[in-house]
Each structure stands twice: as C-alpha cells, then as structure tokens.
From TrEMBL, chain B:
Top-level taxon of the source organism: Bacteria
Bilayer topology: Multi-pass membrane protein
Protein name per UniProt: ABC transporter permease
Keyword Transmembrane helix applies: yes
UniProt subcellular location: Cell membrane
Residues annotated as transmembrane: 37-57, 122-140, 152-169, 175-196, 205-224, 256-274, 304-324, 385-405
Pfam families assigned: BPD_transp_2 (PF02653)
Keywords on record: Cell membrane, Membrane, Transmembrane, Transmembrane helix
Length: 494, 423, 425
C-alpha cells in the first residue's frame, strides 16, 4: 500500500506544498487526484462537490492540471502540437481537420499572458529541460485549470531557474489559481508555500506554515530527529589515484556535455562533485567507467591509462562503481540477491572458471555479504525486485565494496533510499575512505556532498567551475552551481 | 453450436470442491488456481474444443442434420459426437498407441513394430522441433526474439545435406561432419542478425523474418544447380544423402532415429548452459536488464552476437537432423515448418529447455496423430496447425484462460506474459 | 569463450558516437559509386551490343525507346557513379534524395539495358504488372501503418490476407457477387485484426508472438476449410467472380500512364486514394495527431485525456479492413480461386514495405511499387530465359529491408511505443 488515509485540503489562490521523502507517497496521491490511479477508499471534493476521476479526462474537466515529474511530452512533436494534443482546435470533418493557426495562436497567447516564453514551432526533443517544463506549464494553463499540481518540478532546474519557477508559481497563485507543489526540498518549501502538508510512509504526519523551522520540517518528514551530518575524522590524502585531464564527452545526441574536465582524487579522501542534475556528471562518470567513449582527454588510474578500456577492464583494475540509477543500471531485478552480488564477478575465481559457474561459492559468499551488509532479505535466493529500495542499494554497495578497491565511484548513492539505509551507506563510504581507497561521490543533493566530501568540485555545463572546501557557506556553493563564479560575480552567458 | 458435450462436467465438479479443507480439497484448490500446469492443460483442452467445432461445421453430412435440429436433436448430437470422437481417437492412436495393435501383440498375431509405430512417428516429428524450439527458447532468455529459426534450419538442411552427398567419408565420421556442417550453417545464418543487432541495433525480429525468406529462396535456387540436383530426376530435388551420413534408425517401418537421443542430450546441454555457465549468466542478465549488465562490465554486443550464433547453430542442427534423419534429400519444402513450429514449441515450453523438449514431443504427437486422422476420417492435417496455434494463443494469454474458467489467482506462479518490446 | 573476456572492437562501438567523416551522405555516395562501377564494368561487359527496345505498348509492336544494350549499360552505370561521386563530394542537402534516386534508377536502367539487349521490354505491361503485384503490398503496408503508428506491431498481415482471400472466395462464390466477396474479405481481415487487438491490447500478449501465431492460425483454418469444403466441391464453394476492370474514357487514352492507371480495377484506385487519405489523416487531423501521440508516448496521451486503448483498438480494426481488402486481391483479381497458403509470404513483403517505407503511407507506397517492380522483373527475366536467377530478384525486398533497418543507408525509426502495451502503472 502506498497511501493510507491521507487528507489534504487546498484553498483557492494558495501555494500548498506537499513535503515528503522519496517514496513517501506524494506522487501516488497526486496521480490519484489526476485520475491516473484509482484510490481504493476516500473521496475527492472539488468546490465542495464529490467527484470520481476515472481518467485524466475527468480531472481535466474538473479544472485540474498536472506537471509530471517525468515530462508528458511527445519528443517528436512540436511545442504547439504537444500543447494542442487532447484539446485540439479543429475545423470539423470526420477525423477533425486540425486548425493549426488557432492552436499556435492559443499557445502564444497563454505564453504571453503568464510570461512563459515558448517557441510553438520548436521540436520538443531539441529543447533543454527548463524550456520543456515551461511547455508543460503552458499546456496545463491553456486548459484553464483552477488547480495546478507540480510534481518535483525543481529536480532538474538550476537554482536560477528554480527561482524563476517559484515566481511564476507565485504570480499564478495571485490570479486565483491553486497550486500543489510536491517536493522534498525544505528551502523551496519555505520560500514559496502558504501551507505545508508533510507526508511520511503514505500518511499525513502534520501540517505546517512557512514559519516552521527547517529542523522541525525535516524531523516531521523523516519521522525522528536525524542529523544529516556524517561523522568522520579529517581525511588523510595520499597518492594520486584517479587523474582526469582535459576530458571531453558527448551525449547520445552528440551534444558536448563534458567540456574539458580536470580532476584528481587521492587515496584516503572523498572528492564530491556537486551540481544540478544534467550538467555532465552522468557522462563524466560513464566516460571514466568505459561506458561511454571520450572525445578527448585522459583518464589515468595510478599511472595506467584507462582510455579505450572496456568497463570490464576498468572494474578489473580495481574500481568499484555504484551507478546513479539503481533499478536501471545497478541491479537485475529478476535475478536473486546471490546472483546480483556477483554481477560483475561471476567469471572470476572463485565464482567461475572458464565457462563453468561455481554455484556453491556464489551462495556461500552471498550468505556472508547479506549478514555483513545487513541486507534485509528473506533469503539470498530471493529476487532483488522484491526488496525495498534501500536494501537493493545495499546489494549494490555490498557487491562493489567487498573486494579490494583503489577507487570507488558512487553516483547518487542514496537516491530513493530510506533514512536508515542512508546512514549505513554513508558510513560504508567513509569506512572505504578510511582504509585508503580514493572515493569519488557524485550527488545532486548538496547536503549529501557537503556531508561526505573532503573537497567539493562544482560542475556546471560540463566544466568544473571550482574546487572548494565543504566548509564554504552553502549559499556560495549554490551560486557556483548556478554558474556564477565567486570572485567576479560574472554570469555565464546564456 | 452444441458440440461441447464433453466440456461441461469438469466445471461442475470443480465448483463443489471448495467446501472441505481436507488434504484432497487443498490439493484440488491449488489445482484450480492459475498455475502453469493447469493453464497449459486447460489451453490444450480449449484448443481441442474449438477444433471440434471446426470439425463439425466443416462436415456437410453432420451439418445437414442440424437443419432439423429442433425436430430431432439426437441425430445432430450423435452425428457430431461420433465424428469428433473418431477424429480425436485417431489423434491418440496415431500418436501414442493403438489399443488394437497392443491387443494383437498380446494375442501373438501382432508385431511389436506396429505397436510401437505411433510412438516412433511422434518422436520422429518431435526431434527437429526440439532443436528449433531450443534455439528460440535460448534466444528468448537472452532477450532476443529469434524468428529466424526457419531460415537457420533451412540453411542447416542445405549445409548438412550437401555435406551428406557431396563429400565421401567413412561411416560415423561422415555423420559427424554432416551434423557439424548443419550446425555451422545455421550458426552463420544466426550470426548475421546477431552482428547487425550488436553493431547497428537492427531489430532481430525484422532481420530474421527477412532472412527466413531469403534462405528459402536460396534453397529453391540451389537445388536446381548442377552438382546438387539429382541428374536422374526432372523435378526440383537434390541427390540423396550417402548412407554413411544418415542418422541410424530403428528397423523399418519404424522411422525413429538417433536424432531424438541427440535432442535429449542437447536439451541437457542447453539447460546447463543457461543455468550453470558464465555465458548463461551473461545472457540471462542481458536478457532482463541490459543496462545493468553493461554497467557490470558485460559486453551486450558480444553476448547478442554469441547468443544468435548458438541459437542459429541449434536451429541449423534441427535442419541437419531433418535431412539426415527423415528426409535424406533436399527439396524446396525439406525444412517444412520446423522453424515456425519451434517458435510455438518454445512458447509452449515457456522458454525452459526441458519444457521445450516436452512441448516438442506434444507437437510431434499432434502431427503424428493428425496423419492418421487424415487417412482414417479424412480430416485435413491442417486441423493440427489450428490446434497448435490455438494452444499457444491460450498459453500466451493466461489471463484469457483464467477468465474463461474462473480460475483463482495462483499463489506463486507468475502469469506474467512474455516480454513485450517494440521494434 | 566470454568467460574471461577482454575488450573487443564491439565493446567500444557501443560507446562510439557516429564517425564524423563517414556521414550518412558519404556512405550513400560510396555505395552508389560501387554499384555504379559494378553496373558499368560487369553489366557493360556482359551486355550484348544489340538494340534494347522498350516498347510503349503491351507487346513488341509500335513506338519504342531504343538504345544499344552495351552502350546503355555502361552509360547508366557511369551516371550512377557520377551521382555517387556528387554525394561523396558533398552537395546541398536538398539535392541528396534526388541524387540518390537518380543513382538507383540509373543502376536499374543499366541492368535493364544488359538484360533487354537484343530483345524488347513492353513498358505498359511492366508498369501495370508492377502496380498489380504491388497492390496487396500497398494495402498490407497501409494496414501496418495504421496499427504501428498507434503502437501495435502487426506481423499478422499475412494472416489477414489469407482470411481476406478465403472470405472473398467463399462468400463471393456463394453469393455470386464480387462485391459480397470484397465485403467478406474485409470481414476476414477484421476477424484476425480483432483477435490481434484483444490479445495484444487487452491481454498484453507479446505482439510479435500474437502476430506469428495468428498467421499460423489463419493458415490452418483456411487450409482446413479449403480441404474440407472447397477441394471436394470447387464449383459450389470456390469459383468467385473476378473484379471487373473499369476504363475511364479520355484519361485512359494517355500513352503509358493511361492504360496503367485508368483502365484497371477498383481496388487499385482504392489503394492509391487510401495512401493520400491516410497520409493527410495522420499529419493534418485530430485523429492523426492523437494516433501518433499514442504510438510515440502513450502515457503523455493518457495524461491529456486521450483513450489510449480505445484509439489503438480502432486503428487495429481499421488496419484489418484495409488488409482484408488487400486479401481480396488474391482471389478476386490475380486468380479466381482460393488455394492453400496462396499468399506465400506477401504479408511479410508488405511488412518489409512498411518498414522500408519508414512507417509512412507514401514511403510504403514507394517501397511496395519498388518490390512489385522487382517481382515483375523477376517474372519477365525468367520468361525471356535470363541468366540471372529469379530467386535472387525475389530476395530483393527482404535484403533491401535488412539494409534499411541496419541503418546502412540512413536510420529507419519505428514509432517509439510500437509494440509496447499500455498499462497504467
């Protein structure tokens, strides 16, 4: 069960924040409100009238619009086509002859009225995420919504774009529209919300006002007073383990996303890479791991050149890798825990020799790892897909940390993981550092980077803007993440 | 249509069985849940029912009795019943054993060969299907849909057949060489779509469909060429495979040959490959999550290519068994439909090696029984094709079977339909 | 084997971005130069130095275009090389397609000059024969367009053809009406389409599996009923009337084009009109916009209130109508009796045309005409006793499709959600 008797009321003209951890049930709730999922119990009242939403069609006609976390745009359509879809202006005829001019005019009108610039003729797949989000908002607004739901809208935005979005939300609320703002970021909630509902494990655990302190909100959100601080001793950096110089990488579409990155990770230290998602971090790590070919530059692991090596060779050279998307890249959900624990070791002694697998060795090692890493599973032979997100991540961590490493790369190591497992995983990462491994942590959660790292490299548009100490004030790191360098306050040209 | 006389009783019985919590009750309770075995049996049953309807509606004599159905329904019912029961009895007699022949054997008037002939026929038809079925099943486990079993089997037929009559070698060795030739031929025909998939992402369903027809056209051309074509015949038929390259068989008229033994061995080998080998680990990982496999350092491209080579080799071996065991010459239709049937066999066997073996034997039985049915009651062999297709339709849509029979949800069995993905 | 593996070229190719120098245009150019050279050198040297006559009538008589076979083979080969060279050198983008077409046409002409040298090729007969052979391919591929643009893979075109052909023969004979035949062909196509729709959309069975099994089902059912009903009493069950040929006065008198396009049966016009209608429908109407949205991103379509499954059902059934009409070709146009497995893979060539035509109506038309021409040419060559085996010409559609999906001449891209059933999470 994702949600258990949640009550929420939204007034006209208010910005109502729905705050909760990843997996708390916020999106499920809103998908029910939007008719994508059907609630088992309970009712929805719109202007005091009970409504049943069997499909988004019903929700739309009741004046509800939604901007989804994963944009609901057809990539090969133009902006105007995407906005018109489902509410097309036609000139009649059996199939509905499209009136493209009117569709286009509607887009431009809405875009102008709310100050959300979009190009109606651009193909959506060619637009940056910020622009795609504007298209989504315009799409909802052309349908004359009274209530607009925004599901984690800031996850893909820079701090600047976030500010813009917040001011758009504010001006929409001033025109009398109600806004539900789903997020897990405390600062944004405090900046914009009129009222806050906190959700934990599918239940409403409290309502709050923007005056509530961040500590109180965090405590409500996670259920107990947690310190997001990681306790650790000062680092004792040794030799250079990973050296990246002049690295240039293109993404799948051929767009340059890593543009001349230099960085060094020493043994016994954690280098954190901070940055808004989509600034080249993913591709940087993939290039180091041999999952993506670099266009130029060098990657060296203790003087050995990694350029052109396969992923298997990079792993074999002593690199451990926790990928950012656990369910896509980290585990094979249909495989057992035991099989997942040898996913990159199955062909090495003692687990395999030649073509043969040693099933006994695999099972023995699995039993050991399960207890050592506190993986909560009915048995090592259960499929990983049946475990919770935190335990799945522990499987990945256990696999990557149970062999001697020179370098550990952890991308978004605690995304979608419960608080208890976060602590465990953070401690494991620090432990790995303390035994002398070089650690590279990539996270879009600034708190996590600040907590774990001994040095922080801020990445923006494919470049490392600066390498700073974790003691630097958060606001300054935030400015760097937005591409504003400290000394000159000069804005990176658009 | 009221031809479903035998269909009614089971359903009523099941309804009663819910009351007791006895051991038997519990057993039956589980029996009537949507687990794999129940669904498979019910699918076969449903297919037979629909087949019965087809038999009746296409029989003009019986159909005419329905014109006065309201006046005298017994004519129509007994007429239908007689026809259906004779047809399906023939299906059984032709596939497993004929009670009359067994009785004759005990009386001393019969001959053991006649008694064993139905089983021999079943296994003869099953042998090549095991290989093509395994080919499809293995590829499936690696996330590839090998529709090219037909083409690979055709090429296997060609290479094995040509090796069988074009080169002279001592008995035994010649057979091994001819089988190997079939294996290699099929492997090459599988390598092509595998390589294209790995290098360019070309969807294997499209490329293998196209290669099927290309192979068949190539065969059609080849058997007309000098050196291949039988010079003493005017029609499109090749020379006969040397006796040294023929798979040893039981004494005539029994046709069953060593191919079925080979099939069992290969099934065991494929089962080992999937579950116990590092290649099997790779292909299963790539099959269910290629991103994770790639991240763990496996080469998806290499796995796809190897997988299609092995799958093609298996289908090619099926073609070789067909030529060296049953056909002994190349003709335009030498491979029959074994590649496409292999697809159905794999689906029926749920892409598990041993399941595929049993499914192939079931299909072989239907085919062998169908022959008798055609000769005896004059019901076209095509009925067997319909039955085979229907069985797989029901197997592939367990939700449909579940809805028809009001089955309970199975506790553990997953009724997940097979992987569905786009081009 | 791959137990203890090392990196190979393949590993890296997964990660490699496309090479800058060998752009699509350059690869095409190089390919054209190579086939042009083959044409000029091999065809040219093999060709007889005699006149090749391309007559404008249906036989050897009358006006003709003539050229020396050897000279023509070399000339057109050189033209193909020149077109390829231009592509290699790099020309403006808008000329690319034109040059590509020119090169391919020149190659075909070079081949024809070689084959026809000393003989004659009736152009009208070739053109109308190509169109006739292409007819079921056009309709089948259009059925595929309707299904696949809305996200349902249709490999059951073959089965729809067979059911359509069978229905047309049976009902056409019983009712002694060709129009009743056409209607029941459509019903036959819709029967298979509805099975496809229910199993794929409602029961979420893998769409390729459904398609393949439905083909077998159609093969079995029609074969069974053929042997039980039609074979014993062909006069009663299997002698349907032919679809009449109509002639449009005036237009039919235009040389070459007239007899091909305006003195033919209704099905040809229907197919050509449908190409235009479906093209306009897909690009210019609400139905088309929604269909494409459902095929590309069904969740997005759902969130704006479009009934994804409903639209898919409708389009698959419409596809059944079109493919069923294509089935009528086999028993009401090309022959006048049903026979077991008489479609003989035409449904798969239609599938090839759909893919080769990049899932668009006009692309499908072009591909179908090309494949129809290849088949007609194969028939012609085996009739004049050419050394080129007709089996190899018949392979052309299949090989062309493999080349197309392998991206050797530019990528073909299926609708993003093609074959993926829509399930609400």
């Amino acid at each position: 069960m994702a949600n258990d008797h949640i009550d929420i009321t939204v007034e006209p003209g208010e910005v109502h924040a729905l705050l909760g951890e990843n997996g708390a049930g916020k999106s499920t709730l809103m998908n029910q409100l939007y008719g994508l999922l059907q609630p088992d119990e309970g009712e929805i009242l719109v202007d005091g009238e009970a409504k049943v939403f069997r499909s988004p069609r019903d929700a739309i006609s009741a004046g509800i619009g939604m901007v989804h976390q994963h944009f609901m745009l057809v990539p090969v359509f133009t902006v105007a086509e995407n906005i018109a879809l489902g509410a097309e202006e036609t000139r009649g005829g059996p199939l509905g002859w499209l009136d493209r001019r009117r569709n286009r005019r509607d887009v431009l009108e809405t875009s102008k009225r709310y100050g959300l610039p979009v190009d109606p003729d651009a193909l959506v797949e060619n637009l940056p995420v910020g622009a795609q989000q504007r298209v989504e908002i315009v799409k909802a607004l052309t349908r004359d919504v009274d209530l607009l739901i925004l599901d984690e809208p800031t996850a893909v935005l820079t701090p600047q774009e976030t500010d813009e979005l917040l001011s758009v939300m504010r001006s929409l609320a001033e025109t009398g529209k109600s806004i539900v703002f789903i997020t897990h970021k405390l600062r944004e909630v405090k900046a914009i919300a009129d009222r806050i509902t906190v959700i934990r494990r599918g239940r409403t655990v409290g309502t709050a006002t923007p005056d509530t302190s961040e500590d109180e909100l965090a405590a409500l959100m996670v259920g107990r007073d947690v310190s997001l601080e990681v306790t650790k001793t000062p680092a004792d950096p040794g030799r250079e383990v990973l050296k990246v110089s002049g690295l240039v990488v293109d993404d799948d579409r051929g767009v340059r996303v890593v543009d001349g990155v230099d960085l060094v990770v020493r043994s016994g230290e954690v280098l954190g890479i901070a940055g808004v998602q989509g600034n080249g971090q993913t591709e940087l790590v993939e290039a180091i791991m041999g999952l993506r070919l670099a266009r130029a530059g060098k990657v060296e692991l203790e003087d050995a050149d990694l350029a052109g090596r396969s992923t298997k060779q990079v792993l074999g050279a002593g690199v451990g890798y926790i990928p950012e998307d656990r369910s896509l890249d980290g585990v094979v959900k249909d495989f057992t825990v035991a099989e997942n624990l040898v996913l990159d070791l199955y062909d090495r002694e003692p687990f395999g020799s030649g073509l043969k697998l040693n099933l006994k060795a695999i099972a023995d090692s699995a039993a050991e790892r399960v207890s050592q890493f506190d993986i909560r599973t009915p048995s090592p032979q259960s499929t990983v897909g049946t475990l919770s997100g935190g335990n799945q991540q522990k499987v990945v961590v256990a696999r990557e940390m149970s062999r001697p490493l020179k370098l550990l790369i952890a991308s978004q190591p605690t995304r979608g993981v419960d608080v208890g497992s976060i602590e465990f995983i953070h401690n494991q990462i620090i432990h790995e550092r303390d035994v002398g491994t070089a650690v590279l942590v990539v996270s879009s959660e600034l708190d996590e980077v600040v907590g774990l790292a001994d040095r922080i490299a801020v990445m923006y548009r494919g470049r490392i803007l600066a390498t700073v100490s974790p003691d630097m004030p958060r606001e300054e790191i935030g400015l760097l993440m937005a591409g504003i360098t400290g000394d000159t306050q000069e804005e990176d040209s658009e | 249509m009221t031809t479903e006389a035998p269909a009614a009783p089971p359903e009523k019985e099941k309804a009663k069985e819910e009351k007791e919590e006895s051991f038997l009750g519990l057993f039956l309770h589980n029996l009537w849940s949507a687990n794999t075995v129940t669904v498979t049996i019910l699918s076969i049953f449903l297919a037979l029912v629909i087949g019965a309807v087809l038999i009746v509606v296409s029989d003009s004599a019986v159909l005419s009795t329905f014109s006065y159905f309201t006046a005298r329904p017994s004519d129509a019912l007994t007429g239908s019943w007689d026809l259906i029961s004779r047809a399906y009895a023939d299906l059984f007699k032709g596939a497993i054993f004929d009670p009359a022949a067994i009785q004759a054997l005990f009386n001393g008037t019969g001959d053991w060969k006649t008694a064993l002939n139905p089983l021999s026929e079943t296994l003869t038809y099953a042998a090549p299907l095991v290989f093509t079925g395994l080919s499809v099943a293995l590829a499936f486990r690696g996330g590839l849909f090998n529709i090219g079993g037909q083409g690979q089997a055709v090429i296997g037929c060609i290479t094995a057949g040509v090796a069988g009559f074009a080169i002279g070698l001592p008995a035994g060795l010649h057979l091994v060489v001819a089988l190997a030739a079939g294996l290699i031929g099929g492997a090459l025909w599988g390598f092509l779509p595998g390589l294209l998939k790995a290098r360019t992402g070309a969807h294997e369903v499209i490329t293998t469909i196209m290669l099927n027809y290309t192979a068949t056209l190539f065969l059609g051309w080849l058997i007309l060429q000098n050196g291949i074509r039988d010079p003493e015949r005017t029609d499109a038929i090749s020379k006969t495979v040397d006796s040294s390259a023929i798979l040893p068989a039981m004494p005539a008229p029994l046709r069953v040959h060593l191919g079925i033994v080979l099939a069992v061995i290969v099934t065991a080998g494929v089962a080992w490959l999937i579950n116990r080998s590092s290649f099997g680990f790779e292909l299963r990982a790539v099959g269910v999550n290629q991103n994770a496999a790639k991240t763990a350092g496996m080469s998806v491209a290499k796995t796809y290519t190897m997988l299609m080579v092995v799958a093609g080799g298996l289908a090619g071996l099926g073609g070789a068994v067909q030529v060296l065991g049953t056909a002994d010459k190349l003709t335009g239709q030498v491979a029959g439909n074994i590649g496409f049937d292999g697809l159905l066999v794999a689906l029926l066997g749920r892409n598990k090696p041993w399941g595929t073996l049993f499914a192939a034997i079931l299909y072989g039985a239907l085919r062998a029984g169908g022959n008798l049915m055609q000769v005896d009651v004059g019901i076209s062999l095509e009925l067997v094709t319909v039955l085979q297709a229907l069985i797989v339709i029901f197997i592939a849509a367990p939700a449909l079977v579940k809805a028809i029979f009001q089955l309970r949800d199975a506790r553990s069995a997953r009724l997940g339909t097979s992987m569905a993905k786009g081009w | 084997m791959s137990g203890v593996s090392t990196a190979t070229a393949e590993d890296l190719s997964e990660a490699t971005a496309p090479d800058r120098f060998w752009s699509r245009q350059r690869r095409l150019g190089a390919a054209l130069v190579i086939i042009g050279l083959i044409a000029a050198v091999i065809f040219g040297s093999l060709a007889e130095s005699a006149t090749a006559r391309f007559t404008l009538s249906e036989d050897a008589e009358g006006a003709a275009l003539s050229i020396n076979g050897q000279f023509g083979a070399i000339l057109f080969g050189v033209i193909a090389v020149a077109a390829g060279g231009a592509l290699l050198a790099g020309v403006a983008k808008r000329w690319q397609t034109l040059l590509l077409c020119l090169g391919i046409v020149a190659f075909v002409f070079s081949f024809l000059c070689w084959q026809v040298a000393g003989k004659f090729l009736p152009l009208v007969d070739t053109a109308s024969g190509s169109l006739e052979l292409a007819l079921p391919l056009i309709l089948g591929a259009l059925a595929g367009v309707l299904c696949e643009r809305s996200g349902v893979v249709n490999v059951a075109i073959e089965g729809q053809f067979l059911m359509g052909a069978f229905g047309a023969a049976l009902v056409g004979t019983l009712a002694t009406s060709v129009w009743a035949g056409v209607v029941s062909a459509i019903v036959g196509g819709v029967i298979i389409a509805s099975l496809l729709a229910v199993l794929a959309i409602r029961f979420l069975v893998d769409q390729v599996v459904v398609g393949i099994v439905l083909n077998l089902f159609a093969l079995g059912v029609t074969g069974f009923l053929y042997e039980r009903l039609m074979q014993p009493d062909a006069l009663k069950y299997n002698s349907p009337p032919r679809l009449p040929e109509w002639r449009i006065p005036g237009l039919a008198d235009i040389p070459v084009v007239g007899p091909v396009l305006f003195e033919t049966n209704l099905l040809v016009w229907l197919a050509l009109i449908l190409v235009v209608v479906i093209h306009l429908g897909l690009t210019r109407t609400r139905w088309g916009l929604r269909t494409r949205a459902v095929g590309e991103h069904p969740t997005a379509a759902d969130t704006v209130g479009i009934r994804v499954r409903g639209l898919r059902y409708m389009n698959v059934l419409l596809g059944g109508v079109v493919a069923g009409a294509g089935g009528a070709y086999f028993t009401l146009v090309s022959t006048s009796a049903f026979n077991k497995n008489m479609t003989a893979g035409a449904g798969f060539i239609a599938l090839a045309a759909l893919i080769f035509g990049r899932w668009t109506p006009f692309g499908a038309l072009g591909a179908a005409l090309f494949f129809g021409f290849a088949q007609k040419l194969a028939n012609y060559l085996s009739a004049v006793g050419s050394p080129v085996p007709n089996q190899f010409l018949n392979m052309l559609p299949y090989i062309a499709t493999i080349v197309a999906v392998a991206g050797l001449v530019g990528r073909v891209r299926a609708p993003a959600a093609d074959g993926v059933p829509y399930v609400k999470s």
